[in-house]
Amino acid sequence: MVFSNDRLSAFNLGDVLLALPGEQDLLNNIRGARYRDAVLVSLPGGEAWVFDYGVVVFWAVDEDERQAFLNSLQLDNAIIEGARQEHFRFTTSGQEVRIHQDTITLTDDNPLTRLAISHALAQSLKLTEYELQAQGTIQNHSNLPEALATTGKIALSRSEIAKIRGRLFSTKSDIILHYGLLDTPDFFWEYPEFESTYNIAARYMQIHQRVELLSKKLETIHELFEMLADEQKHQHSSFLEWIIIILIAIEIIIFGAKEIQTLIQ
Length: 265
Hints:
alpha+beta, 10 helices, TATA-Binding Protein
């Protein structure tokens, strides 16, 4: 395929893209072909790889063509402009596959070679979303361990703690449910000859190191979740203990009143 330029761009449209009708519309209306979890779409001068988890990778597609394609998916311009994106350059004139200073050198014009690279780019962009999500959750609640260490308690109601636990659980679930996409894609089970190309791009994007760091952040979220759960149990136990103490006190008062009344009589 003769490309019109050397631009390579990846866009993370996330849940907005996932909410669109099935890929059959792409296959029928935009000359697409499916390869496991990615759909190849031929565009004027280039191509797009649409991944099931909401990322689109454009090869040799200029800004106007890219905008037209995204508009054909009925995406709002504000969503397109707000999408997280990464940009590279590419060439097919190399003797070996390599990436240097965001320029990707390929050895052939095989679309599956580009798919192997696209997998790594799409994963990297999606991983960035989860990294920010995990980091934001930790930062939003970083004051809680400090408050517990300083005062020995958290100045939150049981309902507020339950809501925070719910948000933490939701964040952790979102990441874990999509965690499989950060593994080596299933595509390479059928086409193992392209896995080495994928690995070159994955190393450049530091995907494996970042996944390990994300795992540590998930562990931190889990520990915070457990801490809040323990604090909630402690608060509930303390509440029950005070109820028991109050009931015993009431019983003592009533018993004492009866004793005094008996002595008076």
